[in-house]
Amino acid sequence: MFNMKSVFLRALLALSLAIGVAPAFAGPTYKVSFDTSTYSGPGFLDLQFLSGGFAGLSFANVSNLSGDFGTAVLDNATGDLASGFRIANDSGFNAVYLQLQLGGMFSFDVSFDGADLSDGITFSASLLDENEINLFGDLPLVIIDLSPGVPPVLGPSPGAEVAVVPEPSDALLMLTGLALLGFTLRRRSLR
């Protein structure tokens, strides 16, 4: 016998699963924060997004910038300080170069989307002084490497922290699934 309510519930379950699949193809969001209180004067934050030879078109999305930032120079990137930056990996050099005033706390979020993110994509952030000399020698502030067999976050420099931000869509998908499961079990017990 055809039951319209059953068909509707199954369609609702399929829709909630389809909505939850899109975030699964995106990389995680990382919160990068760093303290520059031991430095003073003008400086620069150099954000670079590079890919290996096998990676397809992908993007690094830098958002929620906090700190005393100045003007930005974009190379194969779009956006601004207020809305964030989207850096593509489809040319040789992909970067956002931000002026800043050293001496305080800075932070930003970075997430990735696009092609298969496990094909050798690297995001790095370097902190430079006013003469464009790296404050940590040859080491960047942080490297996020999405290559197979490599830990995703490599060595934040002293004073820097990197944390993975939980995705709200994951919690929403789990709650939707639990609600539908509870509804189904309740419905079966009433029969």
UniProtKB/TrEMBL annotation:
Give the organism, scientific name.
Massilia yuzhufengensis
Full protein name = PEP-CTERM protein-sorting domain-containing protein
Keywords, comma-separated and alphabetical: Signal
Quick check: keyword Signal in the entry?
yes
| Signal peptide span | 1-26
In terms of superkingdom, the source organism counts as: Bacteria
